[in-house]
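OP here, attaching both records as promised.
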Amino acid sequence: MMPTGCFQRSPLLGFLALTFAWSWACWWLSPAVKLQSPWLATMLMFAGGFGPSVAAVVVVWCTRGRVGLHAWFSRYLTRNVGWGWIALAFFAPLVVVLIAAGLHLALGGTLAPSSAVEHVPLAVMNLLAVLLLGGPLGEEFGWRGYALPTLQVRMSWRLASLVLGLVWGVWHLPLLFISDTVQAHMTLVHFLVSAVAMSVIFAWLALHTGGSVAVALVLHTAINFWPTIVPVLPTPQNSRPYALVVLIQVLLAAGLLVCRTEPV
């Protein structure tokens, strides 16, 4: 028998409410307990990143039952996606950061040495850590596995991607005010613009892979991983490389929005 509850009436709003409540509570508590319990603060930071996926699982279970939850997981993980799409998702962010780094150097800037050059095994291990703990696994079942297809029932993929991108960016806001996070050195405008642009790219990729969450996981992992290899993330002394990354993302997203493409 399908469970009933508070999520039945408005599943999408329920998903968003649970996502924000879970993540923001964890992220605001983390700095508060850091001095007394650093390990608990770290665990809360990681737990906060799992808000979207946890919320999606809860909402799908409450509205579709156990059988529906299994079907939902199967639908998005068992898609027969070609390796070309996997490669595109993994290497396209590398091309973006390399172009941004190249433009920055051509304009007379400098980049910090990449720590990955002398620590290749550590970089490989970091790739796995990014997938499991750095955002992708905790977010993509929620954003691209649940929220995006739900929005697309009501609107075009273009509008859905823009709306979700803004929500996605706002969800990250507490991280901009917590020290020791990547977002702490980013401006609010740059971050929100980047989130919306990346959301368009995620949605376009979903259109061509049958909404595969696996491909979204690869893309999200690559977006978070490659800047650890090519140092383009903002610092208090140098934000231009990241600004160039955002500019390239915006140009790419704009191109995808105006081009004619249909779901496959």
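Record two, same layout:
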Amino acid sequence: MNKRFRRVAVLKGGVSREREVSLRSGAAVAGGLRAAGYDVAEIDVRDRELHLPAGIEAVFVVLHGDYGEDGTVQRQLEERGIPFTGSGSRSSARTFDKLVSKQLFVRERIPTPDYEVLGPGGRRSMPLPVVVKPVRQGSSLGVHRVFDEAEWPPAFEESLGYEGQVIVETFIPGRELTVGIVGDQVLPMIEIRAPEGYYDYKAKYTAGVTEYLVPAPVGADATLLCMDLARRTFNALEGRGMGRVDLRMSDDGRAYVLELNSIPGFTETSLLPKAARAAGIAFPELCERILNLA
């Protein structure tokens, strides 16, 4: 593969609650790029200022959470004219905000679970079961499934503590699915089978806890439906370079888009590398492909 860049910085760590995951993802990407023949500088980001060594030709952004996925670091890179991986600042900001994303899904007629937004003292009007989540967080931080009224007050308060505003969403029983995208290629879909059906932070980042089926055994028509929804979601949010769309499929075969992750994980348990591997793309090649799309 032709190399557009030689000297590359990998931004990892960051200032969000997802710092530890980002450190692992960034280390994996740096290793992949070195294996592909790049000169890599690993940058452990510890504040909201952008510090790059001299001679950096492009930046591979592996920062999860705020500052890394909310458009801030992307805007800083745009202002400096430095090529970087993933979506631009406008797309990143819209994607990171679950409320803005939901509003866009509704406008574009992309099926998504019904929802409402609550702040402090808000009263839920939706019937149980529901999912409650902070408006602007990743890695399932602050996300709770609520099946019983007694579970609602602590779940609501814990989610509210992250941002001061939450989205309450109808819980869709069924299958947990995800579709990765790299450039113009939609990767094989993955079905996620987590303990007790709950893909929380522990299930995401503890090796061996969750079962991943790739390609997802859901049938050809359902696969095409979800892959089409993933592409529509990616385009509606003006995604670029890479992304991963999370969906739920109900028992009657209807698919619902939950969100787009603009900077998916790259750890040993992460989904985008698993999907790429199923498509015959080794990890160093995956990193190089994404870098060449900077």
